[in-house]
Amino acid sequence: MSTTTAPVRPAVRGGSIAIRGLSHVFAGSVEALRDVDLEIAAGEFVSFVGTSGCGKSTLLNIIAGLLTPTSGSVTISRESAGGGLPRRAYITQDDRLLAWRTALQNVAFPLELHGVPKRERLERARDLLDRVGLADAAHRRPHELSGGMRQRVSIAQALVYRPAVLLMDEPFGALDAWTRESLHELLLGVRAELGTTTVLVTHDVSEALSLSDRVVTLAPRPGRILRDHPLRDHPRPRDLRSPAFLDLHDTIRADLGFHSTKDTP
């Protein structure tokens, strides 16, 4: 997949995220999160890893502004943008593309909602489609695209208004290994150029180790931070088969209550 394209205009650098004393209780007294404190620096890529019920998606939804926490706060710097555009973008596992719109129209849609003039929004949408390797698919509708192509459109749509924070909830989980790896490379390249702060929720420890500056493990019921694993000293691309990463993989599995892979016959 080619990613040599027309230049994308630089964004405002990513926003920092301050999470303080965050707790959330759902109706019926289900305690999803308890006393979560976390600082994410501008431009960082942080992954949340944990078993089902640890509150990963709840935490992401609170950062996105889709849920109001029971107590505590989330503060994102650089929230305001020119033209009233939002500074948080969200990508889920299931793309939310509009079936009757082309790939180009889907990417431009967030700008249309915020009143960006047609010529500018289409220009910016073309730039992003080109950047994600889909310039030749601009006029295809979602049913004419593969799952990986639709997810590339979703990435372009999320980045088109140059968000300070990109939030992702298992966006690559349903894709085959080759497509997932190619999208990892694409995402790292585009977000590095734009300077976007990125938060990923994933069950895949290898995915988190490959992509992240930090991997944060969460304990379940109620969700709380177990450990924060820094990876900034490990340049990308990373050899996940190296002894250092195999040890770290086992450490994270141990955080989550799984046996070491070294114990597997």
CATH architecture of the domain at 17-97 and 164-263: 3-Layer(aba) Sandwich
* Largest beta-sheet details: 6 strands, mixed
- Quote the distance from N terminus to C terminus: 38 Å
Top CATH class of the domain at 17-97 and 164-263: Alpha Beta
CATH fold assignment of the domain at 17-97 and 164-263: Rossmann fold
Mean pLDDT: 85
* Number of E-state strands: 9
Sequence of strands across the biggest β-sheet: 5-6-7-3-8-9
Structural commentary:
- It is built from seven helices and nine strands; from the N terminus they run βββαββαααβαβαββα.
- The protein has 265 residues and is an alpha/beta fold.
- It has a domain at 17-97 and 164-263: Rossmann fold, CATH 3.40.50.300.
- It has a six-stranded mixed beta sheet with strand order 5-6-7-3-8-9, sandwiched between helices.
- Helix 2 (103-113) packs across helix 3 (118-131), helix 3 packs across helix 4 (147-159) and helix 4 runs parallel beside helix 5 (177-194).
- Residues 1-12 have low confidence and may be disordered.
